[in-house]
């Protein structure tokens, strides 16, 4: 921007308007009861995973003092597994690593997808065609097959970050489409014209003007990506194509529990399963609440 | 062997008599629980006439031809147990029973130089289609496994140990004589497989296999893809689908003496022990002998009604290997110390003992605990005891030191770090890794755990991409060929690249005798040497389980046979409850 | 319309080519099946594998040449081949499982097994989704709406493999209570069963019900959200308001005007849901032991069987693209505002 006074005033005006807008979003969001409850539960899960290990006496490793296959009790609220592992400790570690994957995937795939979609939508023409054809290719490749094949190709233990990168690299296509559609309409707006005439570079326009204005789409997609990443990661782990020891994940815990849903080791099966459901469920409600809060048009339909 | 042969004859006598009333009134029915004390006689009982059995096989197969690399698969071997022409079977006591449907007597050694073996076919031994088994079938098998381009061009035999050693085969009436090349001196000549597929079927299909190596290869391919309708066993295939199921009915033309009672026998693929247990509890199958055992499966079976199971050391042995090309592990002192620091009792207690409570540590690489040839050279060395003090002593003597943080330093002052590799899908190996990591940390060695993807074990081994690794070898009663495969400097399966000329010489010697006892003594010398080299540390014979509906009789596990419980398939039956 | 279809079909070709190149490179570079097979054989025979066998394996799987050469030969079949490869000549290439596991035979038989599972599950899930979506929209913000929404979200959040394991165990428990084998847990039909179409179907029912239920519940939630939103939009549209204002009875408005229009998005979504269920089928087939395409691809990945993986990539790619095409055509047929030039 130039150093004249008017634009600065403009910018200030926009800033206040923006704060007002976010306030309104927050107000609308907090009116969505399910979303708020979900947010609280989700935060509790995050605390459980990241702070819990500092408070709980057992870690996720095998200890000779721990009896094998103890049912839930005060000493071991989630029981213990065969090898002598406290399942509460193991759950914290598994939840943490599953969440790590989910957060990295959500952020990574959103960054890739948003940039990709914005570039395609901004330039249009042949750039757009090439990028969109590539998107078609990614869409056609079966997701579980390609991610599984890549995870299998890692010639050492598959750690959580390997899995996160693989899922992010193949999980960004839906965001790219959404952002592109949004950018296609935005690029014709006056403020983009203004930025362009003020001499802003393409990169500047994309990152400073287009992407910030697609934030509502992006934020909703980030939340949905978390649920997507948790479910993909656990599914791949279950199929034996995901995270490997010494790392762990909720999917691996369920896989290890086997068919014990109806016998005395039921807790090994249900606890990690319920944790996955809780994460995915709360994330979906939060995403729903955010969408309602940020998309006034839809709210109008609803009210 | 002699002792056993008598036992087999006695058993036959009784089964024959059973028809005439022998065994009636003898209600001494035993269960699988007795397999610990009587591995070859547990779960015996009177059979009812008729009945059906469905048996689960824990993985599929992709070829019907067991000569080929594609068909070399324990699962197809199990599924075809009802019809395949085996020379014989080792029973759970480790003793050899010659195939009653093929041979009138055990093979005989008629000359030692060159080794010449005479086979006497049983009167009426046939392929189930009226054609008798003959010398051409022996020759066909030889060609198929020769690995010789002038006999079978472009063939992919899984093994050529037998085929490449045959010089000629001649037949005269019911006797067939196999003459080996001069260099053949295996003490295990009696157990060589000599038959596989019907030569006359190949000819009927228009393959001139005898004269044209290309046609021979084409015949092998034909047998690979074609559902076998011929049979030399107690059953005959009525329907089958590759890698999915095989359905049998009794073979009326079988030359064996055992009375077959079942009307129908089905082998059906169910992948994964969990799925097998569920299907058994749900009554979809009557039993299975999967090549694994898990504590979870046992928990399920304990509460299941009408199901019996037993767990015992199976046909594979677990071991920890060291890579002698590693910059640290090339020193035998460090290798010895690493093995001394590993606490096998603790490892076993937290892994294999969950499925087999009476499991014992394995102390000999070639012979199972309890085998007549078993010798323990391992205990005296302290390897596998977890004695950190002893390990430290070994290292101090060799000039190793520790820095202020307790890290182990080589005599040159380098810090020792190693990795430990294991197959991710094997939980026991994973835990073995974790526990090894813990004990070696006590010794000042930093160990990194690195899992191996399900399909990559072969690659990791071939590229020697490991410092310490835990994997398994098969442990059938045959031992003569094993040391050269495992430890010979030249062998492609000597994955840790041990090069010990003295050991090579000892291995060479094993092949120089036709006497089993002498060969075993020489093999034990090699075992002793490899222990001194601190190269391979045996853990256990990996436990496997057999689970059967309690209405089945004469079904029991057999580690010594590749077909496991199906080794005595002719005797299988449904209990006579009257 | 015909021109449109032809153009779209032609446009599939570069997309499929790109997808196969990418997959081929990634899958092939990450595997060495020859070494793994050699080790497997060694482990089971207890003897070293002859070099002649190793060479023969390499040449029969085309592992004696580079990755780009292998892709080219897979695609075209031109050059020095064993006559079993070349997609353009209708040959899928050799499976490392051996010549008896012919890829084209495997995928064609397995395709129908997977399709049966996926088709039943998708039809059922669409039916339930429409019902739930409409009820939710009509009773917006009622207890019913919230309950249905919650249940939908619950199934959306449930990993298919967990639900599958749970239902499978549940079926065993039900059998136990009933004292008979109503539900089978493994396979897609009685071993070796032969019969006409109807008999096969009846035979497969005990095998079909539970996995279909699992796949259905996994798929229905997404569609029902779709249906609810579109129903709401239509109900708030001017022409529905007009109809109501005219005094048309509520039920008639719903049936004649609202539902018919609101079904358009769902109808166009269905072909996509079908291809989406192909992914879910992988897990369901694994748990219930169906010998379908999904399990085939998983096994192929685990074994490093590149040509078999490629067959799956190609088939699922075609299914997805055809699904998109049908969806676009349906959109045009159902929505009179859209015309294809």
From TrEMBL, chain B:
Residues 1-20 form the signal peptide. GO terms for biological process: peptide transport. GO terms for molecular function: peptide transmembrane transporter activity. Keywords: Signal. Residues 105-494 form the Solute-binding protein family domain. It holds the Pfam family SBP_bac_5. PROSITE patterns: PROKAR_LIPOPROTEIN. This is ABC transporter family substrate-binding protein.
From TrEMBL, chain C:
The chain crosses the membrane at residues 111-134, 146-167, 205-223, 262-283, 309-334. Coiled coil: none annotated. The keyword Transmembrane applies. It is a multi-pass membrane protein. GO terms for biological process: transmembrane transport. GO terms for cellular component: plasma membrane. It is found in: Cell membrane. It comes from the Bacteria. The keyword Membrane applies. Pfam families: BPD_transp_1. Belongs to the binding-protein-dependent transport system permease family. This is ABC transporter permease subunit.
